[in-house]
Amino acid sequence: MVPAAGSAELAGNPFTTRSERLPASLGVRLLRWWIPGGLCLIGTVLLVADGFDTFGASAFGGFAGAGLSVWLINFLWRMGVSGDDERELEGQDRVFLATRGRWPTTRERAHMKAHGHWPDEERTPPDGAN
């Protein structure tokens, strides 16, 4: 189970969409930023090229609406994935609370994120290791 990237620090911002689960490849960046921006730019160019007349205004509305909807769908999807990370982190905290009778501190959460176990847990070596 992989905890969220910086969830503890970013929990106060509802628009934060960082997560280790979200890919950041060229194709994803293209879909996330360049396609919506390109659609909005095409709409703006058509609006200006038509001299702000009816066709240009309609084209601008269509292309800008398409670009903004692609961007919004991507944003909402990223918010959903980051919410999954926050739920997993809270689930780990609740297990900690159930076994120890208190909520984990920030230092204990950072240790769990870095090492994959709580600081007071004994780690046994994997089978076959000395």
pLDDT averaged residue by residue: 79
Number of strands: 0
Low-confidence stretches: 1-11
User: What percentage of the residues does DSSP assign to strands (E)?
Assistant: under 5%
Could you explain how this protein is built, in words?
With 130 residues, the protein is an all-alpha fold. The chain has one domain (25-115). Helix content is 65%, strand content 0%. The chain has four helices and no strands. It has helices at residues 7-10, 26-49, 54-100, 106-115. Helix 2 packs antiparallel against helix 3. It is rod-shaped and about 70 Å long. The two termini are 25 Å apart.
SSE layout and pairing:
Blueprint: H1 7-10, H2 26-49, H3 54-100, H4 106-115
Helix pairs in contact: 2-3
Features:
130 residues, mainly alpha, 4 helices
The gist of it:
By secondary structure, this protein is mostly helical.
